[in-house]
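Attaching the record inline, Q. Sequence:
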Amino acid sequence: MSELSVNHLLGIKYITKADIDLIFETADHFKEIINRPIKKVPSLRDITIANLFFENSTRTKLSFELAEKRLSADVINFSAGASSVKKGETLIDTVNNILSMKVDMVVMRHPNPGAGVFLSKNIKASIVNAGDGAHEHPTQALLDSYSISKKLGDVGGKKVVIVGDILHSRVALSNIFALKLLGAEVKVCGPKTLMPKYIESMGVEVELNLRKALEWCDVANMLRVQNERMDISYFPSTREYTQQYGLNKELLDSLNKEIVIMHPGPINRGVEITSDVADSGQSIILNQVENGVAIRMAVIYLLASKIKQQ
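Structure, as predicted:
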């Protein structure tokens, strides 16, 4: 298969395993490029991409911007915090204004679930969802699965536990879709109050005990507690959360095997994971960051090749 089955990347639930395989293959190629002395390719010289961030983001935004520049695309950055959105402009108005500047692709992060899907139905550009509310974050899930396959050779058959705030996490949801598509076994672990009611219907087991979860898994993906999405208290205190669900070196070393540690960032060091775990040889957190650029280059490149055909 040499092209994606979709014109937008709105969520993992809209793509196929063949799409993921193609994105990974393309990312391999770009990974080689970003490790060369000259890191740019002229592939998207005639494509204009607008990055629309209606929510704060440092890492994802930088990663997308770097990916776009490595591909030689023209990039427009738009941060909604300081813009007319504050004055009441609607999403469609904002985007239409940007499209009148002849933009081919929009990378968007938005606090409302489904914002990307809404846009894709109303405007002509290709949409990449860089996170919509607590719904999906597809490129993060792709780079996470890609990082596992690079580290362990394959995702199929691996046991992956996602630990932490599953309820508010778009990373967890997209990761579950991607890992299941690629044939991994998935469990989630965290306080009962941070588990969505529908989680088991996704074919995922809930494990409330962190040690048991770690003894079972090959890979542990440690999520941060998303205090900014919480309007009520879901657990007594950060200290108590850390005691039950924080991963420290002592716990890691007491397991009878070596597991791979991941984290989508930003890390709350000392809360969900201690510094000596984050910086240990078992952690692939920095590989995730590097792989993120290659994966985003692959997604943008593959979507842009579909735009060029239109």
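The chain has a mean pLDDT of 91. Strands lie at 48-53, 74-79, 105-110, 126-132, 159-163, 185-189, 205-207, 219-222, 260-262.

More tomorrow.
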